[in-house]
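Researcher: Next entry in the queue.
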Amino acid sequence: MTAHPLPRTLVSEIGRRLGERIRLCGWAKEVRGTDDPPAIVLRDHTGTAILVGTPLAGGDGALTDVTVESAVEATGTVTGARGHVEVALDHLRVAGGAAQPLPVTAASPLDERLDWRYLDLRHARNRLIFEVQTTAERAMRDFWHEQGFLEVHSPKLKPIPNKSGDQLFAVAYFGQRAWLAQSPQFYKQMAMAAGFDRVFEIGPVFRAQADPTARHDTEFTSVDIEMSWIDGLEDLLVHEEQLLCRVLGAVRDAHAPQISRWFSTDVRVPRMPFPRLSLAEAKKIVASTGWGVGGDADDLDAEGERRLAAHVAREHGHEFVFVTDYPDVSRPFYHMRCDEGSVETRSFDLLWKGLEITSGAQREHRYDRLVAQARARGVRVDVVHQYLDFFRYGCPPHGGFGLGLTRMLMSLFGVGDVREVTYLFRGPDRLSP
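Model: Structure for this entry, 433 residues:
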């Protein structure tokens, strides 16, 4: 490969390079062949620059022969001509020409844009989503590093299913059956039994959700933590409050103007503590709005969550609300009960702007009680014996939660479809690209 005489300059840097000869690399966002002189608007991931002049395009044609969205490399001198910064070209090379017409534009329907996702992601609005995601994950890791967490990477092929086995993908595995993990739950708890004390994982999980909805996907990124020696559920709630305040502060500081520009929403760092309501209290509030949440319902539906969030925003001025104390029938067998003989569990969901983004609980760490709860729920002890063995030889009180990364981004950006904030969406009707 031929060495370049000039290092690459990013568009965001050219204002500091007046009078200098530079090299830019990016895409031809616009070709202005009727301008005098002709011009190209070059876009890279930091912004756009106007290139003017009439050099040969790679030695094979004029500047006006360049097609929109071609990958181009340009050299020239930064000038302050005509009242704004431009680059007076002395050479332009088409590194990769773009066929015409383009199959999609920013105005195309979402399904069509997803078919050509790599073109869709060139738009600054869509790139911003993943810049924010990167900032958020870095803030999470920094926060956990300060608190002594270990990062783990649990297997995604499992010999036994989580929970009841519903909504799981079964795969052939060398003559036997395996399941794709719906969460790293069992292995997070194994880390507690191993004395790791505090762990986190950011990784893929899978859910065989057959009915397509705007907030579900079949493969997504889960953010999971587990903590030992907690005194109760409140420790988990406080931890997530602190985590989200740290994340939203980092996102606000790095991206607030761009988020406001492209998504017309403000990033607010919430005050602590977040409002807390038991499920029973939440159901009463939702019922008072005229929505039919039955007294025997063991969860809130999507509309109920939205109505509850609207109430909390109106009465408490808060975007977040913890809903706690779910009944055991709606939770996995390994959740700890609130009290002896209680049917309520030390569990919670966190709603942000009416969307559930987190589910968590204190776990039952006492072996005999855990076995009894498994049997009471019809879980075969012989099937989950390896999991139960984690608790036979001394396991501390512990708990944790799983946060859906794409759901967090949906709420942050104020978009109503998970496909918008997923790099490559997977659902029951989409397995490509």
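Model: The chain has a mean pLDDT of 93.
Researcher: Noted, moving on.
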